[in-house]
Amino acid sequence: MKPKVYITRVLHQEMVDIIKSKTEARMNSEEGIPSKETLLKEVVGVDAIICALGDNIDDEVMRTNKNLKVIHVFTSTQRPEDYKDSGMDFEVGNGLGLCITNSPVMAEPIGDFTFALMLALARRLVESDKFVREGKWYQLFKGARGHAWSYALHVGADIYGKTLGIIGLGRIGRVVARRAKGFNMKILYYDTVRRTALEDTLGIEQRDLDSLLRESDFVTLHTPEIKHIIGKRELSLMKKSAYLINTARGNNIDLDALVEVLEKRQIAGAALDVYEGEPIGPDHSLIKMSNVVLSHHMAPWSAETCKKMADGAVENVLSALEGKTPPNLVNQPFLHG
Fold first, then answer.
1. Is 3 helix (H, G, I), strand (E, B) or coil?
2. Would you place residue 333 in the very low, low, confident or very high pLDDT band (cuts 50, 70, 90)?
3. Which residue segment(s) compose the domain that 156 sits in?
4. Which pLDDT belongs to residue 143?
């Protein structure tokens, strides 16, 4: 008999197919975060929950079903505090004999997405796309006969040969550094731990945070949540020509302070996939700005990564239900011994 699994979020169809091929799975049919009432109702009788970081899988949900053996979370983080912010207490899980597992396959796609944002921002791609879609290009050059370029419109900035400042040199920060080498960038990093071996391997240089902000043409964040590591003071240190990119945690940037410096053009622009106080609404100040690129917390979600995440979820769930140590166990560290 296949194990019974409840999936808390709407998934990419290939993910659903993979999970359903090995389990008896049912999935929440509505986009968004499931309510507590929905969770308490739907988890009854299941062997496993597959969920997102941010779903309220708290003590009550964990205790409501005696059959529950494993909770798989679509996230790469290993930090217990990140799970506890979502209500998932490792100590409670340990006491109930639950395995909590994750999906550490997000670094490469986030690295790609970071550079996608950087390129779109620096080369003003979103503005150019809008210009074409609104018919403005056609109106200006409709008689050009194939020579419809401008020396003045949407002139952006090069990335090649510039200085990139990486805040946080963990898995994702290192992935971004490797990509930056291909653009012949000078790479600086700030981290609480000096990474001497990586400095030699990647040809990168350590800086304190203030120096990194002063020297960098592009600053990209790849730390765990550090509330307002970039605030008004830090933004004031950046070059007027510099760009800020965040695919890490929304609370890492003081969003009000960022809006202020963008409005005053004290930095050149920002590209954001995560935000303080998600989701932002259609009346948010950022929406009206031409010097920003915005996306909806989607950096990891490529089709290839979705497949890897589904395969990993199945492997973790089945391993736990067979009494084995799952490959990506994040709680119960004693099981690793």
1. coil
2. low
3. 107-294
4. 84
